[in-house]
Amino acid sequence: MRDDKRTLRQQQIEAAAYQVLEAKGYGGTSMLGIARQAKASNETLYNWYGDKQGLFRALVARNAEEVKQHLEDQLQTDSDALTILETLGPKLVRLLTGDRAIALNRAAAADSTGELGATLSQSGREAIFPLLEAVFLRARTEGQLTFDDTGAAIALFLDLLIGDQQIRRVIGRLPEPTPDDCNHRARRAMDHLCKLLR
Amino acid sequence: MRDDKRTLRQQQIEAAAYQVLEAKGYGGTSMLGIARQAKASNETLYNWYGDKQGLFRALVARNAEEVKQHLEDQLQTDSDALTILETLGPKLVRLLTGDRAIALNRAAAADSTGELGATLSQSGREAIFPLLEAVFLRARTEGQLTFDDTGAAIALFLDLLIGDQQIRRVIGRLPEPTPDDCNHRARRAMDHLCKLLR
DNA sequence: GTATATCCGTAATTCACGTTACGGATCGTG
DNA sequence: CACGATCCGTAACGTGAATTACGGATATAC
User: Inter-chain contact A168–B125, Cβ cutoff 8 Å?
Assistant: First the structure.
């Protein structure tokens, strides 16, 4: 199988894995279930991913790369820092509380090795932090925000923007946010942030 | 077995369940594992709790009762509203991000029926809200805080106080907070809250 | 075209778990 | 004390999942 063809096949398999994961949760997701959904064989899955943990590791890592890429694309702009945050806000809410992210968080919650949690966190908060750091430093340079500790300023922003939505999503008490929800949440976070740090 | 003796025995069994749950996660917790830890038999567990879900339902419900009781005790005071919030803050952080709460959140995340999540949410956020509502209304009456929407004010407080700590705890990326952590987190939340709503 | 590698669909193996069952010990009641 | 209920420790049963194996089909490389 040629490389590009294999890549395409892997994407199909991983899309199938997400379908099963989102429908049945981590505990209800079996390798055979994924194989069936993807019209692949167990042998191929094990050959390509090693074991169940390896498949999930790959899902998380791939998701990480996509999230990071997506956010970096959003930073390719000459807008002022606050405008960038206003644009990023709804997207961050959607990325961090969408069905896929929640399914992955559930998998990580069930993973007693801590490995998926580590990777997921590196793809989530820990990947977002340095990107936001650049924006916050710019906001300070532009005189739009005032803070001593960049990390604390970013953490405040994430508290206001995301808060406890994720855990409430993970335990099944909050539905996926609508675009309006995301916009409203982001708007509110920006208002509070500016009031606190301006 | 007399009632008080049975109650004691149940507490022992439930303590053992928490030990296994916290050590091995929900997926790694078996009824037999709990029975062994509690030096009880499977038959007794099944007789008393019905099935595995029933045991976990009981854990969550019991925890709910204790959390609610604990918080209500904290409200038996003539202090002004902000002082009450200052006292409650660290306790809320500890209750919502302690090892037991996190273990229960993990169980709820793994429960595809949504039942544990529902009960857990009713014992957590949804139980805390009405208690905090009384305090926030008092703060407004006393002229300490200004807001139109009580729910939104409480949600803001919880965002600032708890933020995304829970999910980070659940996926294994944040250790249990120290008393200093709790105090610091609460202090900061109060500062921000007053700045926003005073 | 041929040979080899790989994939699919399915079966087989092993293990663990949820749940029930059982014999003996212990407890509670009359 | 005797009897019945219940608990403990252990075994048994059925099911499902992780993983490996296999025969035939398909794809790739020479």
Answer: yes
- Residue A110 CB partners (closer than 8 Å, separation 6+): A26, A27, B25, B26, B27, B106, B109, B110
- Portion of chain A with pLDDT greater than 70, in percent: 99
Confidence band, pLDDT 50/70/90 cuts, at residue B1: low
**Exposed, middle or buried: residue A63 (CB in 10 Å: 0-12, 13-18, 19+)?**
buried
Chain A closest CA to B24's CA: distance in Å?
7
Delimiting residues of CATH 1.10.357.10 domain(s) in chain A: 58-197
Answer yes or no: do A110 and B192 touch at CB < 8 A: no
Is pLDDT of B67 > 70? yes
Give the nearest nucleotide to A45, CA to C1': C7
The tokens describing A101, both together, are 């992210």
* Comma-separated ranges of CATH 1.10.10.60 domains in chain B: 1-50
d(CA A196, CA B21): 40
How confident is the model at residue A1, as a pLDDT?
A: 64
Report how far residue B110's alpha carbon sits from residue A195's, in angstroms, rounded to the nearest whole number. 39
- pTM value is 0.90
Taken in order B182, B187, B188, B193, is the CA torsion positive or negative? positive
Q: ∠ at Cα B41 (B38, B46), nearest 5°? A: 105
C-alpha dist (Å) from residue A53 to A26, B56, B182: 11, 26, 34
Domain B59-197: what homologous superfamily?
Answer: Tetracycline Repressor, domain 2 (1.10.357.10)
Q: Are B96 and B162 in contact, with CB atoms under 8 Å apart?
A: yes
Residues of B numbered 15-34 whose beta carbons fall under 8 angstroms of chain A's beta carbons: which are they?
Answer: 24-28
Assigned architecture for domain A58-197: Orthogonal Bundle (1.10)
For residue range B97-144, what is the model confidence (pLDDT) as tens digits? 999 999 999 999 888 777 888 888 877 788 889 989 999 999 999 999
Which CATH number is A1-50 given?
Answer: 1.10.10.60
For the stretch A64-88, pLDDT in tens is 888 888 888 888 888 889 999 999 9
Query: Of A110, A116, A159, which has the smallest distance from its Cβ to B163's Cβ?
Result: A159
